[in-house]
Amino acid sequence: MGNTGRRTGSLFFAMAWIAVVAPAGFAQLPATAIQETNAPAFEVATIKPSSPEATKSGFWINDDGIESTRMPLTVLLQFAYNLSSGSVDQIADGPQWIGSTRFDINAKEDAQLATRISNMPREERLAALRQMVQALLANRFQLKVHHETRDLRVVALTVAKGGPKLTETKPDSQNGSWSGLRSSKGKIEGHGATMKMLVGSLSPKPEIGGRLVVDDTGLSGKYDFELTWSPEDLAGHAEGEAGGPSLFAALQEQLGLKVEQKKSPVDCIVIDHVEMPSKD
Q1: I want to staple 56 with a disulfide (CB 3.0 to 4.6 A). Which of 20, 143, 157, 278 is the partner?
Q2: Same structural domain for residues 99 and 67?
């Protein structure tokens, strides 16, 4: 993914974007006033509009913070509030610029906090980072939101007739090996992966059409699997070798899963107030 220095790579978003080194010359603003509680906070945070000439973009979780290059505010909201990365349907009532104006953001923890967070289990680490990003957005974008359940048209992932074709991960099989999910064009590979991870990886695929994907499989375990298909471009034209399965056919044939469109109640983030960030 183009990792450099202490960058470890994004756990979610960098899969779909090209990783690049963020531009130099960020002015640093102390972030100790981000929140009034004793919860962890970034030591310094820098935010500036992206260069109009920049073409590459990415979002990373580094060893000592987060870094985002040429990303709109919606991407930070998706991470901070653990929303689907493939759809903005869960973000309501915000101004148009939150999805069109792009920013470069570099937020770093102090050394002691970075060490403590890096030693946390994966889910605890993500929860802490999400809380810190929420506080950062509240501080720098004057962001105020509330949760609201709304009925949205979604793509539901369900178990196909005949049952799932998934291998449950053995408790000792993750020792000394990577764990989670890897996604690339025409391929998703899971090792100790959950259905929530699979749903999050399916959401950005062109075949899904920008719809929110939800997990209706009822499968709560961790699984090892490999899903391969002939990808489609944004116009729906197959790009793979002739005869390769579509994403939907591959889901059913290889994993015993299928998708269906329906309306479903979904937890959404409603934006009550947001402002362009102050200059560093």
Answers
A1: 20
A2: yes
